Amino acid sequence: MKLIQLILIIGLLLILISYFRWFRSAVMDKLLIAAIMVAGIVLVVFPNVTTRLASWLGVGRGADLVFYLFIVAFCYLILLVYAKIKKLEQQLAELARRQALMDAQSPSTPA
Amino acid sequence: MGSEIFIIIPVYNEAAVIAQTLHEVMKTGHKIIVVDDGSSDGTGAIVKTFPVYYLRHHVNIGQGAALQTGMDFAKRHDAAAVVHFDADGQHRASDIGKLLKLVLEDGYDVVFGSRFLQHQPVNMPFTRRIFLKLARYVNWLFTGILLTDAHNGLRALSYQAIYLIRFSENRMAHASEILSQIRDYELRYCEVPVTIDYTAYSRNKGQSLWNSINIIFDLLFKKINR
Question: In this complex, is the C-beta atom of B161 within 8 Å of any C-beta atom belonging to chain A?
Fold first, then answer.
């Protein structure tokens, strides 16, 4: 693996983590997903874009660049879904807890 | 500052041993809160025949969540201290007294039972021993607190601890989460030697390696997801 590849991947992953840590919001999430989709469409319509971008970065083929970006986009989407699942689990726990507390049974005979 | 003491026992599908466990804990004379975390094997029916408080999650959420539900109930019932106690028979009811003494008389906020402090554990599987030794360093990495026993469910909490500590980790990561909260709130804590009994029954359960990978991932994820 070339140095530039490593730097790109690490750099992008760091951006990903800082986004999660400090800059997240529901709107940003949707915008980023939309951006990923749009980028995908653009790359399909203008395949030369990646080739020129890649040689400018010194990466190699355009396909390689797309691959690295895809790794990061994939990690992002996975983390997004996982965060959503965690949030749902917490809400589920709160609901189950509320019900449990409401239906609590006292000892039928003194302890 | 509360006046009641509660033993909180979270339980999930322990129909085979829960009666035995409850018999033992009842000998201490303390009030018992059993939180049934969605058991489907008839555990609930057995528990209801005992003179205990019985709460039930209708779906299985996790041990951490069950403990928190028990603590919320204890708070509403004038708790001065609580003890967390496992349902599967690994803990000894006779150890409860020494944990409570440290909370009620010596002013500790959280007292952890440790199986490694005094005597060597009875019948402990070798892999489990290694695993727990490693786990305590993982906890130390994340929380700065180094205990001798990373994953002992036997704990006592003071009035202050009950109100400050809140388990947001629903599953098993609560053992690590409680440490970071102890550090954040600067609570007084200590460990006491307790005995853990590894019966053939409980050997088949216990933390699997996969589960610990889950826990580490959740801890890391919490660090980046604010």
Answer: no
The Cα–Cα gap between B180 and B178 comes to 6
B104-163 pLDDT per residue, tens: 999 999 999 998 887 666 667 777 778 888 888 888 888 889 998 888 899 999 999 999
The structural domains of chain B, with segments of one domain joined by +, span 4-224
Q: What is the pLDDT of residues B4-37, one digit of tens each?
A: 999 999 999 999 999 999 999 999 999 999 999 9
Locate the chain A residue with the closest alpha carbon to B168.
A90
Q: How far apart are CA B181 and CA B179, in angstroms?
A: 5
Percent of chain B with pLDDT over 90: 62
Residue type, A1: M
Kindly report the CATH number that applies to the domain delimited by B4-224: 3.90.550.10
Question: What letter represents residue B168's amino acid?
Answer: S
Q: Token pair of B142, please?
A: 């994340």
Task: At A68, list the tokens.
Answer: 């690295």
Sign of CA pseudo-dihedral A88, A90, A94, A100: positive
Q: What is the pTM of this model?
A: 0.83
Distance set, CA A81 to CA A33, A74, B48 (Å): 12, 11, 39
Candidates A86, A102, A109: best to mutate against B (most CBs of B within 10 A) is: A86
B59 touches chain A (CB under 8 A): yes
Residue in A with minimal Cα distance to B35: A100
Q: Are B196 and B124 in contact (CB under 8 A)?
A: yes
